[in-house]
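My main concern about presentation is that the manuscript never shows what a single data entry looks like. In essence, backbone conformation is discretised, so a fold becomes a row of integers matching the chain in length. An entry of this sort, consisting of the sequence and the corresponding backbone structure tokens, reads as follows:
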Amino acid sequence: MQPLNFPSYSFRLKASENKTLIFDVIRKKSVVLTPEEWVRQHVVHFLHQEKKYPLSLISVEKQLKINSLNKRTDIIVFDRQGLPYIIVECKAPSVKITQSTFDQIARYNLQLEAPVLMVTNGLEHYYCHMDHNRKAYNFLPELPEYEF
């Protein structure tokens, strides 16, 4: 897998049936290593090791219903009250971050109402603070650290 724009982390990789698997510390199991999963695992480690969010507050591939359709968020970080605090949308490094990427995470956030959003393809990262009253977002220079 290609190097990403994150610090270097140690991952548990293994081969199985001609596929490479990576251990997910949140789901506590090995999952197929796709380019998007490579980004997702880097974000999980970044949130925990750099931004100090406890693993117990991080959820991966959480299912939600939007307009009677089942969707999955890549990563949600909850606050101590169990409310969504950060939603992360991960794309493979080859996928450009476009307005449709922001539209996708905004649709998820209509239901979840998290105050912070992150969109990344592992190479480019965008952080936003939501103003739910004005239905707008403001870009942040970096993701806030854990301080609950």
